[in-house]
Amino acid sequence: MAGYTGDGYLSIKGMKMFRLAALAFLTLSSFAVEANDVTDAINNASQHYQAGELSQAAAQLDYAATLIRQQKAAEVVKAFPDAPTGWQGRDADTNVAAGAVLGGGINVSRNYYNDQHSIDIEMLLDSPLLQAFTAMLSNPSVIVMSGGKLVKVQGLNAVQKTEGDQFELQFVTNSNAMITLRGDTAAQSVIEQLANAINLKQL
Questions:
Q1: CB atoms inside a 10 Å sphere around CB 96
Q2: Which residues is 120 bridged to in the sheet?
Q3: Could you say which residues form the signal peptide (predicted)?
Q4: Distances in Å between the alpha carbon of 9 and those of 137, 150, 159, 179?
């Protein structure tokens, strides 16, 4: 799978590649989704199914699921912490993939910056890509072999890794969301501060 090393670790380079791939997904701009849009799609799917129009029924159900993921993405944005003192935060970006694209998924990211450094936080939810990373977290020897270090973030197992002047922190929440923070090694303390300030209950 692209972006993973031979032992299943999702590298810094791999995550950057995934982010570019995510932009190629079926991306929906942020807007309020009316509840009746979802129910209308479900009702249309039922009508198509009863008429034996299975392809159309599946398409309508996928559309309804995508709208629901969009609503979820709007909630996930609220989990991002405020910018630390001396830093600023850009508006969050949301990318919602349809179920037909790699099984669907939600990718939400936000950038924090100051005059010298930049930090990115990415949250990946409802994606089959989480399985490989979750399996790796259960095997500390694999983490060490891949150049990572097992640490704790808000009581959860996390992988800390440094590649050149880049620092990365990854962990999976109890709600099955993978969170990745990356930035300059000089900003490591701020990255750790942001990781511990994420509102996991919002996920």
A1: 29
A2: 111, 182
A3: 1-35
A4: 9, 13, 10, 14
Question: In 10 A of CB 184, how many CB atoms?
Answer: 16
Beta strand spans in the chain (E) = 88-89, 93-97, 105-113, 118-125, 148-153, 156-163, 166-172, 177-184
Residue type, 57: A
Place of tokens 């990946």: 124
The pTM assigned to this predicted structure is: 0.74
Distance CA 193, CA 175 (A): 21
As beta bridge partners, residue 124 has 107, 178
* Residues with Cβ within 8 Å of residue 145, at least 6 apart in sequence: 7
| CATH fold for the domain made of 12-26+81-202 | Protein Transport Mog1p; Chain A (3.40.1000)
pLDDT digits (tens, 9 = 90+) for 153-179: 999 989 999 999 999 999 999 888 999
Tell me phi and psi for residue 170, to 5 degrees.
-130, 140
